Amino acid sequence: MFVSIVSYGLAVGAVYALIGITYNVMFSASRVFSFTAGMLGMLGGVLGALFINKMGMNAVLAFMLVLACGAAMGIVTEILTVRPVLKSIEQHLYVLSTLAFALMIQQVTAIEYNTEPQPFPVLFPIDPNSWLGIVDQKFWLPVLACIVTILGLEFLYRRTLIGRAFLAIAEDSYAARALGLPETRLRMASYAIAGVIGALAGFTGAQMLLAFIGNQAILNFYGFVPVALGGMGSNRGAVIGGIALGLFQQAANFLVGGIFASVAVFAVFIVVLLLRPEGLAGAATARRV
Amino acid sequence: MTDAASPITTAKAPAGLLGRLEGSWSWIALGLVGLLLPLLDDSYFGVIAQRAYIYWILSAGLNLVVGYAGQIAIGWVAMLTLGAYTTAALAAGRVGGVEWHPYLALIAGGAMGAVFGVIVGLPALRLRTFYFAMTTLGFATIVTQVALAWKDVTGGGVGTPGPVFPWPFEPGWGFYYFCFILAALATWITANIGSSRYGRALVAIRDAEVAAEASGIAKPKLLILVFLLAGGLGGIAGGLFSSLQSYITPDAFTFEMSVLFFIGILIGGRGSILGPLLGTIILTVLPEFAAPLVQWSTFLYAALLLVIVLVIPGGIADLLDYKNRRPLEQHREIVPRPELLSRVLDANGEPSAIRLTGIALHFGGVRAIDGLDLEIRSGEVHGLIGPNGSGKTTTLNVISGYYRPNTGTMKLNSADLPFDKPHARAHYRIARTFQTPRLVGAASVLENVMIGGTVRGHGTFAESMLSLPRHHRDEKQLKDAAMQALATVGLESLANARADRLQHSELRFMEIARGLMLRPAFLLLDEPAAGLSAEEIRRLGALIKAISREGTGVLLVEHHADLIFDICDRVTVLNLGKVLAAGTPAEIRSHREVVSAYLGA
């Protein structure tokens, strides 16, 4: 049981962490939290199952196509729901515009695809009853995706010029614009990257979570919890928080039942935020007057 | 300025078509339609109408949360779920084996909603918008999960039957009237709140939170009351819903319903009652007439939400607001009438003083204030000048409670003035204005000024809810006082204009009028002359001087040296957070360091 708690917990946690990073990448570029993070995760699974199971596409091709769809979705999100409301960001209209867009996509998926959970293809067949069952795709794939994403983002941010431009926008978009950085294009690029990461989370986690429109709300919330607790914009916080959340949930699932786990996560989330609104690792608030 | 006698009769400034609709006849018409609908004797219409009433009972409360207080509570469907299951489970005897009377069960459902309304609302007191939206969303998800899993009480996925209300509200038209009466009641009490000082305070929290605090509005207390009310109404709506559905399963409470409630409010417009009411009715009825689209209804709602947010964030109320698109009179002049001040201010105040001793405040390594002594006495204008970054506004923020200094003491007469409590300043009658005017753009000038007097009301939230006599007395007093304050600063002809249509200089005077509503013992002005013409500055100076002569102590943070030397009794010059010089204007003017550092030789 311990083994399955850990393997499940790590895998789910990696998906949460990836969704958390999706939130963060969008937030860094625009100071906007977008409800499309969970939608991207949901789409990653649904599109993967659609391309491979229904359309019989080659798995590698399907994977690339899913990521491309994620990127496109990210760009549309930026143009349609974020850019128009950035001028008056203090009104928080982005909460509603991104939510509306996410719901529209979810509803289209429900009507055109399916409202019930659908199986996701096994890409690396292993006999689950052998000792190798523990290295089933559904356990290691999300973890691998998470590691690759972190390394990729680190490389992008630390080693490349464009990555430094992203950091500059995140740090002070006003000054970055004054230096001549193309803020709008960089923001769009960030949303595309976020789209890829979200779709990756959905695709790699779908064996476990299935291709299901209901994953949108679940990933939206459980992907946000590590971000809120770890401090917004902090990918390290998102990964640690995501893994911890996944392990805790699975342990509670096995030991006391899933409902208690959900209620406990929610209670911890609210209590921690009430005590430390800036998150466990976040910085204090800014000047108001 | 001669038409100062322009009508100032209406308490709210109802604007445009919707304004006229908000007149009583539209309510009478709606009421008549509701009362007479059973004459059609069409049970299909009856069921649709009942659903609309039930949705509106929830939305009426949610409207105060979303439309007035501006809190994005997107998962409010959870209150409907809680109320429905509480009522149904208690009435069916699923808890404790005793079958509750349906009406008692309904009340319990409302109580359940109220309790959880507060629990879910608590994060709004501290969290940023998106966080709060997410917690309400998470809560809605979890409530549904619990409903699925707690089979003993909820019946799980199979569901549980809803209660059947006995006489006088038995199923059919009896139940119809039950829903109608409760919906009317919900409309009435939320409309009462909306037009009371509590409603204005909610809008102030939404649009000008800092100014709300400075006016003494305690956000936590007020929001908790509103969440209690909104949760309770949501719970009652849930109880009725379970009876209307006659059988409830977790599937009945989709997140899409939350979106429907939300859009109904946004379509109608924020800060209105009738608008959201019509929005809710339209959204409930529409799918019935577009059967082929039912499948797509959620998509359409979401698309509608996106369009509203992007194209008309003000909702229909804004679109129809013709009156406020008519140009205001050009070439307006602000002519304050300081002679009216004696009626606005309490002249009999004892002489008092605010004393700051050794105040120091660092932000990280920056010493914003570095050992400051300052005394503001009643009846005097105390000027605070210095170059940018010398700590003037920071000092003002310490006095008005926004910053807690690292060291030092602050006393009002001999008692400590608590740090860190901006909303408590109003009770000491310490008022302030802001460098950038903080206002509720969508409210009238009069309402903006009335916000300043919120703490002067005596009626409780419940009294306003039920429109009891003390509520009316408060309203009348506040309105009279606000009109007087406006006349004093010379803005009475603009009382009914939307505040965001005023010129910058007029907003500065409006903020002073709002400050006067506290009958301030001390008035802290943060660069009131910025952006004013020379003539306006002269009039402002005369007004400030007159205010101090009524016994109010004025702290004037300013860059205009002429104004400072004209009207101040004493002046303190700051540089790098320290007092460079202090004394009478004449002394300061000849102070060598001040002249070289700041005034320029």
Q: What report would you give on this structure?
A:
The complex is a heterodimer of chains A (289) and B (601). Chain A is mainly alpha-helical and 289 residues long. Helix content of chain A is 74%, strand content 0%. Chain A has eleven helices and no strands. In chain A, helix 3 packs across helix 8. Chain B is α/β, with parallel strands linked by helices and 601 residues long. In chain B, strands 8-9-10-5-11-12 form a six-stranded mixed beta sheet, sandwiched between helices. Chains A and B meet through helix 4, helix 9 and helix 11 of A and helix 6, helix 12 and helix 14 of B.
Could you outline the blueprint of secondary structure elements for this entry?
The complex is a heterodimer of chains A (289) and B (601).
Chain A: H1 2-30, H2 36-54, H3 59-82, H4 93-112, H5 137-159, H6 161-171, H7 173-178, H8 183-209, H9 215-230, H10 235-255, H11 258-275
Helix pairs in contact in A: 1-2, 1-5, 1-6, 1-8, 1-9, 1-10, 2-3, 2-4, 2-8, 2-9, 3-4, 3-8, 5-6, 5-8, 6-8, 9-10, 10-11
Chain B: H1 16-21, H2 24-36, H3 43-68, H4 77-91, H5 102-121, H6 129-149, H7 151-154, E1 160-161, H8 173-194, H9 197-207, H10 209-214, H11 219-245, E2 247-248, H12 255-268, H13 274-289, H14 297-311, H15 315-319, H16 341-344, E3 353-363, E4 366-377, E5 381-385, H17 392-399, E6 407-412, E7 415-416, E8 430-432, H18 445-451, H19 461-465, H20 469-489, H21 504-516, E9 522-526, H22 534-549, E10 553-557, H23 561-567, E11 570-575, E12 578-583, H24 585-589, H25 592-599
Parallel strand pairs in B: 5-10, 5-11, 8-9, 9-10
Antiparallel strand pairs in B: 1-2, 3-4, 3-6, 6-7, 11-12
Could you name the key traits of this structure?
heterodimer, A: 289 residues, mainly alpha, ABC transporter involved in vitamin B12 uptake, BtuC, B: 601 residues, alpha/beta, Rossmann fold, six-stranded mixed β-sheet, four-stranded antiparallel β-sheet, disordered N terminus
